[in-house]
Amino acid sequence: MAAAGLSPSAAHVILYENAPEPAVRAGEFDLGGRRVAARALPYGTTIGVERWSFDPIERLFLLRATGGSILVGPHDPDAWRKALARGPAGNVAVSGCDPSEEIRGSYRAAAEGAAKAGRGVFLLDPSPSALPDEPSPAYVTLFVALPGRAPSEGLGESLRRGFCAGLIVPLVPGWTCDAAALKELSHLAEESGARFVAALPAAQDGPARRAAIEVREELSPEPPEDFFERVHHGNWRAETEEARLRLREVCASGGLPCEIPRPVGLLEPPANAAAAKRLEEKADEIFALDEHRASLFHAAARWIDESGRDLAPIVAEGNFRKIFPFVEEIACEAEAALRDGR
Fold it and tell me: Domain range holding 114?
C-alpha cells in the first residue's frame, strides 16, 4: 500500500511504500573502529527533505534526491528481531531516519527489534521520535556535527533521556580539519553535554571529494581560497590523521572521550563485550602502522562476538588458550579483558 505526502517545503512529492520485509544488509562494516555485523535500513533510500547526509560507515557525504519513492520497513519490532536474528552475530547499526518517523515508527521498530535480538545497537542520527522507550547499555546514539551547523535535535533529547549519545565529525581537508573548525566542534560537544566525540576521515575517491565540496558550498557558500586545492590535491591521509590527533588532544583537556563507545547487547556476556571492545581499540590504534596486524585483531573481535557462550568462566578455568585460535599477542589482550570484564 502506498501513500503520497509532501515534504515540509511542499516543493517535491515523496511517495511512501510499505516494504514487504525489513531491509537488512549483513557484512563486515566498520564504524570508527567498532565492528558492525549488519545494517538495518528502515527507510533505505537516498531521498529526503535535506539535500545531503553523511554516512559514517561508508564515510561518504550522500547527495539526496528531493522527490521519489521511499520503501518503508515494518513498524513491528518483532519483524526486525526475526530478520536480524538470521544474520551474523555482532552489533547492528540503524540508519536512514525520515521526517515521517513520528507517524510510521519504522526506525524505532528497527532499533527495538535489534535490541530484542540481543544485539548492541548504534543509532545513526535518530530523530527524537525514533528513540526507543528506555535507554540501556544496548544503545549508542551518534549525530553528525559540522562547523557552523548544530547537530539535530535528537542529540539533546537522547542526552536528556539518558542515552549514551555523542558526535561524529567527518574530516575533510580545508574544512573540518582546520584548527578553528576542530576547536569549534569540541566546544559544541562540551556545550551540548555529548558523552563522546569521534573524528572519521571522509572517503577520498573522486566522487566522495566532489560530494564533500558540494555540501561545503551549500553550508558556507564562500570557502577559503585553498579549499579546492587541498581537497583535490592535498595529502588527504596526512591532514586527516593530524586533525584526528589534534581533536583528541583538545577533547582530552576537557575529559571528553574521542572514541565511539561499544554498546552491550541485552543477551551479550559483559566480559565478552569488554574483550571485543579492547581488541577493536587495539586494531584502531595500530591500523596506520600495520593493517594486516590490525585485521587480525578485528578478526579476533569477530570470533568473540560469534562464540555464542560466556568466555569468562573458560578463562577462569585456564582453558581459554586451548580454544582461542589467534597468536599469543592477541590472546593476551583478549584474556586480560575477559578477566577485567567479569
Answer: 2-253
Q: pTM, whole model, 2 decimals?
A: 0.91
Q: Is 37 exposed, middle or buried (0-12, 13-18, 19+ CB in 10 A)?
A: buried
Q: Do β-strands 121-124 and 139-144 pair in parallel, antiparallel, or remain unpaired?
A: parallel
- In this predicted structure, the answer to whether residue 10 has a pLDDT above a threshold of 90 is no
> Would residue 11 count as lying in a domain?
yes
Q: Which three cell numbers stand for residue 182?
A: 576542530
Grid cell in block for residue 324: 582461542
Q: 242 and 158 share a domain?
A: yes
Any idea what the CATH number is for the domain that residue 36 is in? Answer: 3.20.20
State how far the Cα of 281 lies from the Cα of 141, in Å rounded to an integer: 19
The 8-class DSSP code of residue 128 comes to: G
90 and 35 in contact (C-beta within 8 Å)? yes
Instruction: Identify whether 263 is part of a domain.
Output: no
Looking at every residue in the chain, the average pLDDT score rounds to 89
Spatial distance between the Cα atoms of 212 and 170, rounded to a whole number of angstroms: 10
